[in-house]
Structures are given as structure tokens and as C-alpha cells.
Amino acid sequence: MKKFKRLSLLLSFVLLFSLALTGCKMDDEKPVETPDETVDTPDEDADADVDTGGDKQLVIGLSMNTQTNPFFVDVKDGVQKAADEHGIELFVTDAQDDPAVQMKDIENLITKNPDAIIIDPCDSDAIVASVEACNDAGIPVFTMDRESNGGEVVAHIGYDAIKSGNMAAQYLVDSLEGSGKIVELQGIMGTNVAQDRSEGFNEIIDDNPDMEIVASQVADFDRAKAMSVMENILQANPEIDGLYAANDEMLLGALEAIEAAGRSEEIVKIGCDAIDDTIEALKAGRVEATIAEPPFFLGKAILNAAYEHINGEIIDKYVILDNNLVTQDNVDDLVTKE
Question: How far is Cα 294 from Cα 277, in angstroms, rounded to an integer?
Fold first, then answer.
């Protein structure tokens, strides 16, 4: 009986010892609790605005008045070239020569919150409201070629349109030896460029009383309109000695009408801008002269000005680029783009 009790006690002791060992083992395997802490996770948008240099990529809006006119196509190409050189993202719109469309274009550009907006206005008066909208949004505005008649503009870059008109008129005076019947084709008269080119042209003609303007009509800087207008002028005027078209697109349109009428030899023809088609016509002897206002370099200049301003540099508020007379004598030396 005593042996049985001792055996039971021994078994109980073994059982308790086994349970104790098991409990210790379970405690050893229990996961270790750590204090709560916040873990940083990568922000998917963190690098969205970061350029290769680690700086925020600049964004600039470009509101073009048109992209059907070769002059303004070259302007846009110049802006794009400079933007690429600086690593700038460029948003480009085309107003198709419609001030109402351009207003909507600029409203859309403002929503992108760009670092600057460059505008080539369809109309110098109509663009004022859009410039003021940019001002209200705190976005710097730059204009090129055509000015805005209101609003705050950081800088304007263009050519001296009065000087261009002066040079064109003087070329006709010299070519016609101070006497002749001439035609003036005017651009979009809602722009300061068209107004100034006409003013400059008429200043010189008025000083030469034997130079008679037999027709002065608007053709809106458009090739097809100029052709139609010139056809009517040719029918109404059996004698025409000289033609001044306020841009090369109108010159080329008028040239088609003149050549179709078989009157090219009797008319001295000069335009303005020095676009590629006119340079080819000059080299072929189909037109006599144009005024060089290279649009590609105009585009590069305005983008560079905006870039410098954004980076804190002081820039001129008004910049006038050089323009010059191009004839068959110097056309081969002309450089209009890179």
C-alpha cells in the first residue's frame, strides 16, 4: 500500500514537471510584441514633378494665334526648341485666328497652373481680358510679335513693325525712282503689327508725292484672301508699278494673281517676314524683296526670356529684334533658323 502511494506521488511529480517544461517552451515561442510605429511608404506622386536634376520641372503654356500660317509655325518651332534645351514641358494651343477660341485656350492653360504663359495674340484688344485672367491667377505673362493693349505683361519681344513698313516703302521708292502707282495689302488691323507696318509704310510714301497708292486693302495676313483681293485690284487698275504686302503670305497670294494675269514683269513686289516660300521665290526671281523678321528666333527669344524670369533674372520689359531688307543680292546669306 505504501509502495503504491509512493509510486502515485512520483508519477504526479513527473507529470507536473512535464507540464512546467511545456509551458516554458510555449512562452519561448510566443511572438514578441513591438511598440506601434508609423512606417513611411513611397509616395507614388513624389517624383511626378521632379526632373532629372532633382528640381521641379518647369511648365509653360504657349497660346498661338494660328498654326496655319508658316510664320507662326516657325515661331512655335523656335519656342519648342528652346523649351527642349531647358527641359521645360510645353503646352501648346492653336486659336485658329479666333479671339474667342484664344480666350478659352488661355482659360485651359491657367487650369494647368504653369510657371508662365506665352501669348501671340489674335487681336491686341481682345486679348486684354485673358492677360488679366492670368494676372489674377498669379501667372507671369509674356507676349511676342503682337502686343496686348492692356493687362500686366512681364515682357514683350518682337520686331519694329514701323521700321519694317519704312524699309518696304523706301525700297519701292528707290526701285521706282520716286514715281509710280503702288498697292498696299494690309494685315489684320486689330493687331498692332498690322497697324504699325501700315503706318511705317505710309510715312515714307507720304514724303514722296509722286508715289501714288492706287489701292490699300485688308487681306488679313492670309494667302487665299490676298489672291482674291489682288485679282480685283488688277482688274480695276491697268497700271500698277509696285506692291507692298504686309506679310509674305499675302505677298505669295498676290503673286499668284499677278502671274496669272501675266503682269509680273511690270510690278515690283516686296513682302515682310522672310518665310521659306518667299526665300525660294526670291531666289527664283519671282519677287524682288522682303523684310526679314525670322520667326524661329523670335520664338526662341521669348521662351528664353520666360525661363530667365522664372529663375529670378532681371529681363527687359520690351525687346526689339533686328530686321533687315532681303533682296536677290543678299538672300543667300540669310539665316532664318537653326
Answer: 13
- pLDDT higher than 70, residue 243: yes
Task: Tell whether domain 59-159+296-321 is in CATH 3.40.50.300.
Answer: no
pTM for the whole structure? 0.81
For residue 322, give the DSSP letter.
Answer: -
Alpha carbon of residue 221 to chain centroid: 18
Residue 50 has which C-alpha cell? 521632379
Summarised one tens digit per residue, pLDDT across range 284-333 is: 999 999 999 999 999 999 999 999 999 999 999 999 999 999 999 999 99
First to last CA, the chain: 117
Cα–Cα distance measured from residue 336 to residue 286, given in angstroms and rounded to the nearest whole number: 20
Q: Do domains 59-159+296-321 and 161-293 have the same CATH topology?
A: yes
CB 165 within 8 A of CB 325: no
C-alpha cell at 300: 526662341
pLDDT at 21: 37
Cα 163 from Cα 200, distance rounded (Å): 6
Task: Please say whether the beta carbons of 63 and 102 come within 8 A.
Answer: yes
Q: How far apart are CA 300 and CA 323, in angstroms?
A: 16
What is the C-alpha separation between 127 and 118, in angstroms, rounded?
Answer: 12
Q: Which CATH class is domain 161-293?
A: alpha beta
DSSP-derived letter for residue 214 is E
| Structure confidence at residue 262 as a pLDDT band (50, 70, 90) | very high
Domain ranges of the chain: 59-159+296-321, 161-293
Q: What are the residues whose beta carbons fall under 8 Å from the beta carbon of 207, sequence distance 6 or more?
A: none
